[in-house]
Amino acid sequence: MLTTGFRSVLGIKVFGPDLGVIQDIGVQIEKALGDFPNTRSVFAERTTGGYFLDFDVKRKTAARYGMTVGDVNDIIETAIGGKTITTTVEKRERYPVNVRYARDFREDLDSLKRVLVPTPGNGGELGTDASSSPTAERNGGSQRFSNPGGAGAQIPISMLADINFKTGPPSIRNENGQLVGFVFVDVTTDDIGGYVRDASKRVSERVKFPPGYYVQWAGSFEYMRNAEKRLQIVIPFTLLIIFVLIYLNTKSAVKTFIVLLAVPFSLVGAFWFLYILGYNMSVAVWVGLIALAGLDAETGVVMLLYLDHAWEKFRVQQRLNTLGDLEASVIEGAVRRIRPKAMTICAILFGLLPIMWSPVTEAGADVMKRIAAPMIGGVLTSGVLELMIYPAIYVIWRRRSLPKEKRNDMSLTAGTVAPTPVPAPAPAPAVEKSKGKKWLRILLFVLSVAGLLVGVYFAWQKFGGNAPPSAASGQLLASQTMNGLTVTLTGDLRSAASDILVQFKDAGGLPVNAGTVKLDLNMNMPGMVMNKGATVEPTGAPGQYHAKVTPGMAGDWTATLAYEGPRGSGKASFSVTVKQ
Q1: In terms of C-beta density within 10 A (0-12 exposed, 13-18 middle, 19 or more buried), how is residue 49 classed?
Q2: pLDDT in tens, 218-270
Q3: Rounded to an integer, what distance in angstroms lies between the CA atom of residue 244 and that of residue 418?
Q4: Same domain, 135 and 258
Q5: Closest CA to 345 of 368, 372, 376, 371
Q6: Cβ-Cβ contacts under 8 Å for 274 (sequence gap 6 or more)
Q7: Are residues 521 and 564 in the same domain?
Q8: Do 201 and 149 belong together in one domain?
Q9: CA diameter of the chain
Q10: Residue 247 included in any domain
C-alpha cells in the first residue's frame, strides 16, 4: 500500500513529540506482535540511527573576530560542502563549477578542525578559498599563523565552532503537525478488520504509552475504514432512492414496503453463500449487496404488477366478493409470473456463475467474485420469497377491502362483466388453482435442485477438495523433538497451494494440543530472499493442525515452526523440499 506510505499490507503510525520515545514504542510493538497469530513479519522503523557531523558556532568568539554566524556557515558550505561559483558553457551544454576543499583536508575530524577561516580585513571577500593564501605553515603537526588575532588573519574553524559527531534521525516524518514513526506489519490472513481488532488488544496490553503518544493503524485497514465511512452514507442513500422510485411507480406506500420485503429475505441467501465460500465482508461484497437490493426491487415490482392485474380483473368481473375469490385471483396472478420469474433467475445465474469459475490468477477475479457472490445467493432466496411469500402478504393486505362478513368465506363466486349474471362453470377456478400449484411445484423443484448442486459444488471446493490431509495420507516431510514434544509434518508440499498436517505428540506417543501454532517457509538464494507464511488452524482432532501455504517456487526451503500454549513454547526449523 505505497499510497499510504507503507510497503506492507498493514502498518502502525506512532505519533508523539520525541523521536527517541517513538522509536522505543515502535520496538515494543514489534516485540508484542512478533509472535502474534497470522503475523508473517513485523518491523519497527529506526528513527534515530543516523550519524551526523555537527557544527556548533561559538557566537561570542565569532563576534570578537567581527564575524557572524552566517559568515561561519558560508565557510562551512564553501570549504566542506561545496559551492557553485560559476557555470561553464560548452556549446549547448551547461556545467556548474563547484569548489571545495580536497579530500585530504576534510576526510577526518582533525582535518576539519584545521579548516582556515579568513577574518574581515584581509583585503578579500569573506568565504574565499583559504588554501590559496599560504598564511599558515605546518611545523611538525602544529600550525603557525602569520598574523594571529589581527585584521585579515586566518584562524582555524575549531576556534569558531565546536565540531563533533551526533546521532539523529536519518529522516523525519511529519504528519498532521506531529512527528511520526512507522511500524510495518505483514499478515497471512484476509480478515484485516479482525486482525487489527485482536492485534490492538495485544498492543494495549503489552505496550505502555507515555502521555502525548498514541498509535493509528494504516495501510489496507485505513482504506477499509474510509470505505466504511462512505458506505454509511451510500447504503442509506441507495435504499432511499430505491424507495422513492418504487413509490413513484406504485403510488402506494404499502406496495412499496411489500416490494422492499424482498431485500432482507435476499440477504439471507447472500450471507449464507458468502459463508459457504469463506468470503469476509469487504467493499466488493457491499457493492454486490447494493446491486442485489436494486435487483430485488425490480423483480418485486414486476411480481406486484401481475398480482394487481389479476386483482383488478376479478374486481371488474364482480368476482371479488369472498376470501376464496381473493385467493383465486392471487393464484392466477402468481401463475402468470412463474415463467418470467424463472427466466429472470436463470438469466442472472447464467450470467454470474461463470465469474465464480474464473481462475484466481486473472486480474480482478477476486474482486468480481465477491461482487457476484451475494447476488447469486440473494437471487435464489428472493425468487422463493416472491413466488411463495408475496402472494400470502398480498392476500393479507387485500383482505381488508372485502366485506367483514366475507373475509373468512372460502367459497368461490361466479360472475361476468355484463350486468346480468350468467353462472360460470364452477370447476374453472379449481382448474386455475390446480395449474398454479403444478407450476409452483415444478419451479420449486428446479430451484431446489439448482441450489443443491451449486451448494454441493462450492461446499466440496471449500471443505472436500481442500480437506486437511490425514495422518495416513501424504509423505513424511520432517520430524523433530523439542521440549518433550514430537512434531511431525506430513503432506505433499508443492509450489502451488499445499496442505500440511502438523501433529504434536508427547513422550508416550499420545497427541497433545500445543495452543497457537505458527509455520513459515523461508528460502535464501543469492540476491533473493523469499518468505511465505502459512495459515494454521486446528483440525478438531487432538494434537493436529492444518497448515495451508503457497510456496510459489520449487526447491529447498527452511520451515520454521513455533508454538505457544499449555505445554509451554518452542521453536524448531526443518529442511523441506518443495516439488514443482
Answers
A1: exposed
A2: 877 777 778 878 888 888 888 888 888 888 877 888 888 888 877 787 888 88
A3: 39
A4: no
A5: 376
A6: 281, 285, 373, 374, 377
A7: yes
A8: no
A9: 139
A10: no
How far from 1 is each of 254, 347, 528, CA to CA, in Å?
48, 38, 22
Residue 235 within a domain? no
Evaluate whether residue 376 is within a structural domain. yes
CATH number for position 191 = 3.30.70.1440
75-108 burial string, b = 16+ CB within 10 Å, else e? bbebbbeeeeeeeeeeeeeeeeeeeebeeebbee
Same domain for 177 and 268, yes or no, is: no
Which residue has better confidence, 107 or 405? 107
Query: How many whole angstroms separate alpha carbon 45 and alpha carbon 491?
Result: 38
Are residues 434 and 532 both part of a single domain? no
The three three-digit cell numbers of residue 437, written as one number:
400449484
Q: What residue has cell string 409452483?
A: 440
The DSSP code sequence of 326-338 is HHHHHHHHHHHTH
Which residue type does 369 have?
K
Domain boundary among 414, 443, 464: 464
Residue 213: count of CB within 10 angstroms of its CB: 19
Q: Which of 86-95, 409-418, 479-488, 490-499 has the highest mean pLDDT?
A: 86-95
Q: Write the CATH number for 569.
A: 2.60.40.2480
Residue 328 domain flag: yes
Calpha distance 556→522 (Å, rounded) = 9
Query: Do 37 and 71 belong to one domain?
Result: no
Q: How many domains does the chain have?
A: 4
Indicate the helix (H) or strand (E) that contains 243: helix 220-250
Write down the number of H helices and E strands in the chain: 14, 22
Q: What is the mean pLDDT of residues 202-213?
A: 86
Long-range contacts of 230-233 (CB under 8 A, 24+ apart): 231/283, 231/286
Is 316 strand, coil or helix? helix
Give the single-character DSSP code of 533: E
pLDDT digits (tens, 9 = 90+) for 381-432: 887 777 777 788 878 887 777 777 666 767 677 553 333 333 444 444 444 4
323 shares a domain with 265: yes
DSSP 549-576: E---S-EEEEEEEEEEETTEEEEEEEEE
pLDDT in tens, 304-351: 877 888 887 877 777 777 777 777 888 877 776 677 777 878 888 888
Element (H, E) at 164: strand 161-168
Identify whether residues 395 and 500 lie together within a single domain: no
- Range of the structural domain that residue 197 is part of: 2-49+170-223
Residue 88 C-beta-side C-alpha neighbours within 13 Å? 4
Last residue of a domain, one of 123, 139, 168: 168
